[in-house]
Amino acid sequence: MCFGRCARCVGFKLLILALLSIVANILLYFPNGETRFASEHHLGKYVECLHGILGGGFLVLIPAAVFIGLHNDDCCGCFGHKDCGKSCAMLSSVLAAFVGILGSGYCIIISALGLSHGPYCFTHLQRNWIYPFTESSGGYLFEYNKWSECQEPQNIVQWNVTLFSILLVLGGIEFILCFIQIINGILGGLCGLCCSHEEV
């Protein structure tokens, strides 16, 4: 079934994207590869939301596993019609895709907020741990000369901007793929039901 092959293709892509999201989120916890900032609780509030691990990661792994499993075409069917079972499987993949949309949407929202809010860092002006760019509403992203305000962790602005941007893009691609599978699942389910009715 071409719809099943399409779902499997989407599933494998989601699997890779979910694993990349988990890695990117883990890296956010260790600026410059250092663990002391996490242990001292000097991480930004959006870093600790687990949006890449839970949202773009595990909640996307669920539909990925469901989509990859659809290629087996081993549904038992109903009332002796195997196609009916395949149709039900395709329609059930729509529910899994909604889970993926929720997870990727969460990843997108938190990543966007993290980029807009800016990093939590020690500044030379305040001599304290603060969010120096909160009032810029993301404008700091284009004011590179202000990035040096963050003294510790070193290069934290670049670190956060890079990883939050990666998570934003990964979440966006996951969202699109899950939306594609919703359409694919509905079409596959309806076409399968039509075929099984014609056979009757």
From TrEMBL:
Record has Zinc as a keyword: no
Transmembrane segments: 12-30, 50-70, 91-115, 161-180
Compartment(s) of residence: Membrane
Keyword Transmembrane: yes
Entry membrane topology: Multi-pass membrane protein
Alphabetically ordered keywords of this record: Membrane, Transmembrane, Transmembrane helix
The organism's place on the tree of life at top rank: Eukaryota
Primary location: membrane
One CC-aspect GO term: membrane
Family membership: Belongs to the L6 tetraspanin family.
Protein name listed in UniProt: Transmembrane 4 L6 family member 1
Gene source species: Aptenodytes forsteri (Emperor penguin)
